[in-house]
Amino acid sequence: MANHDHIGCAHCEDEPAPTGARIRGWFTGGAAALVVAACGVSWLTPFPAWSVPIFIAAAIVGAVFPAQRAWQSIKRASLDINVLMVVAVIGAMAIRQFEEAAMVVSLFAAAQWLEAQSLDRARKAIGKLLNLAVSDVLIRDDRGERHIDIELVDPGSLMIVKPGEKIALDGIVRNGRSDVNQAPITGESLPVEKVEGDEVFAGTINGHGALTVAVTKRRADTTLARIVHLVESAQAKRAPLQTFIDRFAAWYTPSVVLLSLAVAIVPVLVLGQPVETWLYRALVLLVVSCPCALVISTPVSIVSALAGAAQQGVLVKGGIHLERLAGVRVVAFDKTGTVTTGRLTLDALHPVDGATADAILELAASVESQSEHPIASAILAAAKARGVALSVPANVRALPGLGVEGQVRGAAIVCGTPRLFSERGAMTPAIASLAQRVVKDGMSPIVVARDGVPIGVLGVTDRPKAGAARMVSDLRAQGVSRIAMITGDHDAAAQATGAELGVDDVRSGQLPEDKVTAVENLRHAHGAIAMVGDGVNDAPALAAADVGIVMGAMGSDAALETADIALMTDELPKVPYTIRLSRATLANIRVNVAISIALKVAFVVLAVAGVATLWMAVLADTGASALVVANAVRLRRFT
Predict the structure, then answer these.
(1) Label partner for 589 (CA 20 to 30 A): which of 313, 341, 370, 428?
(2) How far apart (Å, rounded) are the C-alpha atoms in residues 587 and 333?
(3) Inter-CA distances, 289 with 285, 355, 525, 637, Å
(4) Sheet of 144-149, strand order
(5) How many CB atoms lie within 10 A of CB 275?
(6) In a 3-state reduction of DSSP, which class is residue 211?
(7) What is the structure's pLDDT at 610?
(8) How does DSSP classify residue 600?
(9) Cα 100 to Cα 113: distance, rounded to the nearest angstrom
(10) Secondary structure (H, E, C), 233-283
(11) 3-class secondary structure for 361-386?
C-alpha cells in the first residue's frame, strides 16, 4: 500500500518481517496469558491484591509494540492510535485502574495483530502473480539440456517447457504444439493452442505437449513482471476520495486530543467534579476517537479491487481510474479489432456478364495469393473453404490503397476498389450499382476485372465479435446512458455494425484528431466518458477520455503504457466487468466510511456520558477497523 504513515494510522504501516511477526505474536499471547492469570488470582484466591503486579506486567508486555510505534509516530510529529493507546494505559495506571490498563492493551495488541493478518492478505494478493514465475529454466544449447537460474537466461536462448510446467519467460514457440492455460495472466477460461511462431508468456501453464521456446525477454522485462510493476505502482497512487480522507484525518486527530484535554480539565476546574472520573472519560474519548478505520476505509478497498482485477486479467493503473470509471455515463468504442474481430471475411460474391462465382473467386484468389493484405486473406480463406483450386500468378504488382494486379493463365487480372476502376475509366453502370449495393449491406466492395472488363464484385466484412451485442446490453443494464462507436471505417460498414450491436451513436470516417473531437463532444453532451480502443491509433482519443481502456494488451508494451486500464485479452465482457468492479469499489468505500463514522459517533457520546469503558473503546476502534478490512477484502473475489 502507499505511504500512509503521515496520516496517523498504525494499521497502514508496513508489517514486520516474518520473524518480527512471530515475536509480536509471542508478546501478544504473553500479555493475554498474564491477564488471564491475574484475573484468576483476583477472582479465585483470597489475595486479590496479588493480582496487581501481574496486571502491571501484562500491561507492560502488551504495550511493547504499541510503545515502539508510538515513539516512531512522535518522532514524525504525528499522532496515531498507538500514541493515544499508550497515553490511555499510562493514565489508567496513574489512577490505579490496573485491571483496565492490562485488559485494554491486551485487547488492542490482539485485535491489531489479527487485523494485520487480514490486511496483509489484501495487500499481498498481487504477490501471487510473482509466484507464477519459476526460479530456474531448462535450457538447450551446444552443451545439451541443463537447468540454469532464470536471471542468467538471455534473449535468444532455447527454453524447453515440458507438459504441465509453468512457462518461465516470454518467448516464441520454435517447435512443438500445446494448449496453454493463460488464465493466471489474462483471466481467460479456456486454454489457447500454441504452435510454431506463436508467442507465449511467463507465468502461463503449458498443457499436454512439450514446447521449445526462443526466449525474447529477460525476467525483469517479461509481461508478467510488467504487470506486477504496474499494479504495485497503481497501489501507490492515491484516489481523490482517499486524499480527502487523509486530509480530514490530519486535523481530526489533533482536534480529538484537544477535546479530550477539555473533557479532563473543564468539569474539574469549572464544576468541581472528581478528577479521576473525568480523566477516565477523557482517556476513553481519546481511544475511541482515533480515525484508524476511517483512514484505512479507502486504501484497503482500492488495493483489494486492484488485486482482484489483476487476477481477472484487468490492469487498473490506480485508484483514481477506478473512481472515475464508476462515474462514467458514456462508453465509446473503436470499431475494427475492438468490437469486431479485425479479421475480414468474404460475405458476398456477385458475378456479371456470364462469369461464375467460382471463376471470379479463382482469379481473385490467384492474384491475391502473393499479398499479405487482410482482404487477400479473406479471399484466400473463402477459396479454400469452397475448394477452389488456384493458379500460379505472374507479374503481380501491388497498388497501395487500391488493390493488386497481375496475370493468371495469360489474362490480365485486376482486383481492387471501385475508386481504382473509376480512375482507370473502367467502371460500368452495372458494376457501380453492385458496388453500391454491397456498401449498403455494410460491406467493403472489391471489383474483379479480366482483360480490362469487370466480371464481378466481392463484399468483405469485419464481423462483430461474439458477445458484442450482449456486452452493449450489459452496459445499458449498468446505467450507461450512451454507447457510441467511433471509427475510421466508411459510413455504411460502420452503420451496419452499429445497428447489429445496438449502439446509440455511430461516427464514421474519423481520423485520430476527429476521434478526440468526438470524445469531447460526447462528454459535453452526456457526461463522463470511457474510450475503449486498441491503444495504438486510438491513443489521442484514449488520452482525451476520462478513462482510457485498451483491449488485447497482452504482450504489447505500448498498450500497457497508453491505457488507464488495460484488458490483457480482447474479451469484451471485461469492459462491463470493470465498470461493475469500479462501482462496487466505490460502494464498498462508502459502506466502510459509514461504518467508521457511525461507530465513532456512537462511542464518543457514550464516552462523554461515562457509559463506555476503556476496553469498550478499544473494541470499538479495532472492531471498526476489522469490519472495514473484512468488507474490503471481498472485492478480491468480485467476478
Answers:
(1) 313
(2) 26
(3) 6, 87, 45, 32
(4) 144-149, 136-141, 158-161, 211-215, 171-175, 199-200
(5) 13
(6) strand
(7) 79
(8) H
(9) 20
(10) HHHHCCCHHHHHHHHHHHHHHHHHHHHHHHHHHHHHHHHCCCHHHHHHHHH
(11) HHHHHHHHCCCCCHHHHHHHHHHHHC
- In the numeric block, which cell numbers belong to residue 262? 477539555
Backbone phi, psi, residue 150, to 5°: -60, -30
C-alpha cell at 433: 450499382
Determine the distance from the C-alpha atom of residue 589 to the mean position of all C-alpha atoms in its chain, rounded to a whole number. Answer: 17
Give me the helices (H) in 386-467, please: 418-423, 429-440
Whose cell is 467534579? That residue is: 273
Radius of gyration of the chain (CA): 34
Alpha-carbon gap, residue 73 to 502, rounded angstroms? 57
Q: Distance between CA atoms of 598 and 591, rounded to whole angstroms? A: 10
Active-site positions?
334
pLDDT in tens, 299-345: 778 888 888 888 888 888 878 888 899 999 999 998 877 888 878 88
AA identity, residue 530: A
Among 329, 336, 331, 332, which Cα is nearest to 497's? Answer: 336
Q: What are phi and psi of 291, to 5 degrees?
A: -85, 30
Assign residue 463 a region: left if phi > 0, alpha if psi is -120 to 50, beta otherwise? beta
Cβ-contact 156, 215 below 8 angstroms: yes
Task: Write the CB contacts of 155 (distance below 8 Å, at least 6 apart in sequence).
Answer: 215, 216, 217, 218
pTM (global) more than 0.85: no
SS3 5: helix
Question: C-alpha cell of 47?
Answer: 489475595
Chain centroid to CA 391: 51
Buried b (16+ CB within 10 A) or exposed e, 316-325: bbbbbbbbbb
Nearest-angstrom CA–CA distance, 50 and 638: 54
Grid coordinates belonging to 122: 489484501
CA-to-CA dists, residue 536 to 185, 313, 468, angstroms: 21, 20, 21
pLDDT at 308: 84
Statement: residue 189 has pLDDT above 60? no
Most confident of 24-33, 97-106, 157-166: 157-166
Q: Distance between CA 235 and CA 320 in Å, rounded? A: 10
Q: What is the pLDDT of residue 4?
A: 36
Burial class (CB in 10 A: 0-12, 13-18, 19+), 77: exposed
Q: For the residues 221-238, what does the mean pLDDT come to?
A: 65
Percent of the chain with pLDDT over 90: 28
CA distance 288 to 609: 13
Classified as helix, coil or strand, 2 is coil
Place of cell 458477445: 467
Cell of 363: 482469379
The single-letter DSSP state of residue 474 is H
Degrees to nearest 5, angle at CA 407 with 403 and 413: 45
pLDDT of 243 above 70: no
Contact 60, 27 (CB under 8 A): no
CA–CA distance, 288 with 602 (Å, rounded to integer): 10
Element (H, E) at 302: helix 292-311
The answer to whether the CB of 178 falls within 8 A of the CB of 209 is yes
Residue 3 has pLDDT above 50, yes or no: no
The DSSP bridge pattern shows strands 547-550 and 403-408 to be unpaired
